[in-house]
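ok here's the first one, seq then struct tokens
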Amino acid sequence: MLKRIAVEHLCTGMFVHEFCGSWMEHPFLRTRFLLTQPGDLERLRATTVRQVWIDTCKGADLPVEIVAAEEIESPADEADQQPAPQIKPTSTSKELHQAREIIGQARETLKTMLQDIRLGHSPDLPASVQLVDEMTLSIKRNPHALISLARLKTADSYSYMHSIAVGALMIGLARRMGQDDDSVRQAGLVGLLHDVGKTRVPLAVLNKPGPLDPQEWAIMKAHSQWGFEILQPLGLDKAIAEACLHHHEKVDGSGYPDGLKQGEISLLARMASICDVYDAITSDRPYKEGWQPAIALQRMAQWAPQQFDKSIFEQFVQTVGIYPLGSLVRLQSEHLAVVIDVSESRLLTPQVKRFYCLREQRRITPEIVDLATPIARNSITGREDPADWPFKNLEELWHGFTTAHP
């Protein structure tokens, strides 16, 4: 049974189901939890939140001498409750511009957070939650724009742009898997925070432009344990810290730090493993160029039996698309094209921009072709690796900006 009660009637042992007000009005990263610490009760009473919903099936009820303000089956049944705002879908081209602004803000937030951690300060977790919420709204408006744009990064911005990209992928994957809002937020936070332990890795090791020697590799592998140590005291849900600890585990038991196998690895950690690897191999690094998204998915499919949860990986492919934004493809018409828009209903027939004629071996004026329409009379015959072609700045063909990186 859910009951709406005044904050002054709260006591330890009650299960908080929902706060009546904006998440910005309270200091908690979770909206549903068992109230066990007197300190948490004091923190809540010190906020501007005046009412909360409690779940009496999961925690203590009101004392009989206190009359609840209202008792109903669900907060959603409350007559005067405002309906959740409807998120209007936007086109990929329009959302790319909004996503660019979100990424710019996110980059500064993550840069500051990682610097604070290196200096021994606690990270600004409310800012991280707000960032996850903004990213989630963008992905609700368009499931591909932010995820694709976050993939673009420069070498000097990799450490925090990687966290933003993995956060976006985690949000998209969680939504694809049908998780509720709280779970989507948790997934986004795992993505943002999964590599915070690298703040303890010496920069000479972290930024080394070549292969690591055994001693350096041992230091690098310790980052997941260090991340857990940083996050554990911060009051985060335990599942978030544990997912950050285990995001390098593999389903065959060959991962680290604990060599866990499929059933021993949490759902969040199995999701994070996939998102982390995908962004890492599609990003340019000092020692190697990143693979194109479609090529990366092919390689990951080969690794899946040993490394990834098969069912989650299948959901991940649906999240980014069989031909993700920016993929270089060969068309039946003997043209090369870049994928510029995809949707759930047309995974095999995306919208593309053809720009190169294979018969004549020359660039042509870019032309948008919607492969889902009958008049297109065209189809994708295969993926192409840009490394095999002398094209520069392919990104500009699909994201429409004059610079190569956000």
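and now the second one, same deal
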Amino acid sequence: MELLGISAALGLLIILAFRGFTLLLAAPAAAMLAAAFSGEPLLAKWTLTFMQGTAGFIRNFFPLFLLGGVFGKLMDDSGAALSIARAITAWLGESRAIMAVVLACAVLTYGGVSLFVVAFAVFPVASALFRQAKVPHRLIPPAIALGAFTFTMTALPGTPAIQNAIPMAYFGTTLFAAPGLGILASAIILGFGLWWLRVMERRARSAGEGYDAEAHIPADEHFVRSRAASADNFDPGELNHGYRSELLPSFALAATPIVIVLAVNLVMSMVVLPRIYTGFLAEPRFGETSLSAVSGVWSVVTALAFASLILVLILRKNLPELRATLDAGANASVLPALNTASLVGFGAVVAALPAFTVVRDGFLAVPGGPLVSIAVAANVMGGITGSASGGLIITLNALGETYAHLAAAIGIAPELMHRVAAISSGALAMLPHNGAVVTLLAICDATQRGSYREIMVVGLVGPLIALTAVIALGKLFGAF
């Protein structure tokens, strides 16, 4: 009966998310349904268990969401994001329209810009480029998804994305965990995705399909807002943003903040934090924690704060309403953080149910050891929740400590566990009910019927191929 309740709760969560309900309502409703099937006290489960899980996530990761939102908004309002997108598309040219869009998105997201800031900034450029090159409009969403939703969020070492940050607290790693495997996985995802989109482009040309072949459904602003509310990194403030083309900064100035994010992140992780005194973290007033549990977030927030400051200094003339930009970025960070935290609260309630031991034991019993087990668990939970970060945090909250002990017992490097967990989070999470997928289609005035197959291939099939390669190589050679 309790397992039926968990299944019903997961089904309710999927239905509500797919129908566009905010996770602020969907997650506690689904959690209470699971608790009701188990005969648990509902008010206690909501106000205590659910909220403890939610609050714990906010405590650990809200600074990352906050500064990420501010940095993304600064990049957007200053025109830096659009400048980078235009420069890359101009360099690669009309004949490589798809590659240009993918790489423009990849550069921006790897530099810490919110994926939805990227989508809003790149789509107008992609639309003009695809129209000129006579590439079907329906291939714009998968091109953006490949660059913004895949390897730069989960696989590429050093990315400040939340999916890459979450495993650090459980495995004592950094954002640069298993760099060789991460780069290899990124190359597989990127290479496979570009190959597939190129094949689709050639087929479309052979069939005489042009830019306007698909009948598009105009995006409705209310629809975009409601569906995007469940996405990982949506910023509602971007819907009405505008750019002043004559004020766009040069590519060098626009790219400087992104370089700073990566450089400061690396220096903090590898040089500064390991050398400073952090013994005070073991004191009760700081929660008796350790440097390994906080170093990843400290590195990212320092990098984002420093890059934001430099951006303001070098592009101040492009930010005439600086306070409004800062306020909008800060305010827009709250909803994504609370959405993801609500999924964590849902996971906390489910994980506390007696029947969850069956689910946990099922994941742990998957043949292939901890690497395969964590890959299956993160994929399944990401697919169920429609959220890469939500599914990953639920998995690691329930099983992270167990996986860390199992890996240590058989000599698997924590860096390898980190990279496998991060890549796994972004595969099945790309199913059709994923809030990011639904919102991307709305932004691009595209349809599930016209564009989802290609989104699935580049965002789900490609990462699964890369994940298989990483696990196989990790078992043979360890982390590198």
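notes on #2: The CA atoms of residues 88 and 104 lie 6 Å apart. The mean pLDDT is 86.
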